[in-house]
Amino acid sequence: MIEFFLCSLLTILPDYLYRRMAQGKRWGTDLTLFTVWYELRWGITSCLILTVSLITLIFYFHPSTTSVISYFRAITVMPEALGRVETVYVRNGDFVKAGDKLFKLNADKPEAAAATARASIAEIDATIAVSGAELENAEAIIDQAEAALEQTEDEFDRTNTLFERGSSAVSERDVERLQNVMDQREAAVEAAEAGLKAVKNKIEIQLPAQRASAVARLAEADTAIAKTTVYASVDGHMEQFALFPGDLVNPFVRPAGVLVPADSGENRFQAAFGQLTGPVLYEGMLAEISCMSRPFKIYPMVVTQIQDVIPAGQFRAQEQLLDPANNAKPGSIIAILEPLYPDQTELIPPGSKCVANAYTNNHDKLDDPALSSTQKLALHAVDAVGLVHAAILRLQTLMMPVQTLVLSGH
How far is CA 201 from CA 91, 104, 209, in A? Predict the structure, then answer.
């Protein structure tokens, strides 16, 4: 409507003034409702052509969209294992800081496992202490066996010497008997040495391994106990959190709630522009937004990033081939908008629905001396018609509460 009104001032109005002033035609006689088309045909036709051209020029070089939103990420609050709630520390809607306790699950089972592991460690430590006495006993047995072997060897040497000299006081049987006793004493020494080695292996290898295993079981149980208390991972607000002692929380079926980070989605807006605006959009382009959550306010923005892909082309590998003709919507070019001035949009809640205009700026191009006068005039015209779109955005901002509260059926 604004475009048609402006165009009529340059076409229909001059045509009417010419008919009225130059040709002397008057309303009611020469100019009537039935002759207006014939009399003002040049102005009306020029107005329609100019209006269509102006609308095309405005919406192409200064694109707009009604699909602007500030997406935010929510963190699911859940324990790492199934459990029954024992204590709840916060309520729904509370603001929590990173590290604050949220709730605690019953820890009877992991605490029992920890107690068993501690008892095993104490038992192994006692066994290690007793093994010191066993080691001393094994060393004493070796000393005793070696002493007996040495005594038997001396007696054997003395008896064998007498036997070889032909003494009648010693018989061959006495020598054989001492030989057998000496063999037995040597076997006893070897057995005592094996016993000592077994005791050392028990002290140095077996018991430390058993103790390390018990310590690992204790650490595992302590970790399980620690996991029964759920903490906030970031600063934020608790939402959809309604736990009570006795509730059963399942991390795969029933999470406890969601934690909305304090700075998630703030001062960052995603705007979906039509694909036809692809050649016009660029990083650093100025824009304006107006949101329902902050009516009657317009915020200057700047395009900081343009998404490299169009979401409508995304697919997941499957057995059936995709047919592009089945895509009902062509998809949008996503532009990331941030406030031109820091923290200007911090009062806009994340998730707000907004509308946006982006404005082409040819100021830098106009300084190029290689441009002709016609090109400079065209670039000036492109920049100037952005005022019309800015005025339209302000009318939309004024009419937004009326459309929402009155014309939408409320």
Answer: 57, 44, 11
Helix (H, G, I), strand (E, B) or coil at 238: strand
Q: 250 has which bridge partners? A: 254
Do residues 204 and 71 touch, judged by C-beta distance below 8 A?
A: no
- Is a pLDDT exceeding 80 seen at residue 26? no
- Report helix, strand or coil for 177: helix
Mode of pairing for the β-strands spanning 101-105 and 333-339: unpaired
Q: Residue 231 has which token pair?
A: 């903490």
Residues 235 and 99 sit within 8 Å (Cβ to Cβ): no
Neighbours of 112 (CB within 10 A): 11
Residue owning tokens 């295993």: 213
Rg over CA atoms, the chain: 47
Indicate the Cα dihedral angle 396, 401, 402, 405, nearest 10°. 140
Please tell me the distance from the alpha carbon of residue 78 to that of residue 285, in angstroms, as a whole number.
Answer: 42
Of 261, 267, 264, 270, whose CA–CA distance to 342 is shortest? 267
∠ CA 308-313-315, nearest 5°, is 120
Please say if the pLDDT value at position 167 is more than 70. Answer: no
172's enclosing H/E stretch is helix 172-201
Q: Is the pLDDT reported for residue 409 higher than 70?
A: no
List the beta bridge partners of residue 69. 270, 353
The token duo for 298 is 């317009």
Say how many C-beta atoms besides its own lie within 10 A of residue 51's C-beta: 19
Q: Is the pLDDT of residue 289 over 90?
A: yes
> Residue written as tokens 């014309």?
407
Residue carrying the six token digits 């998809």 = 331
> How does DSSP classify residue 202?
I
- Is pTM beyond 0.70? Reply is no
Buried b (16+ CB within 10 A) or exposed e, 244-267: eeebebeeeeeebbbbbbeebbbb
What's the whole-number mean pLDDT along residues 142-149?
A: 73
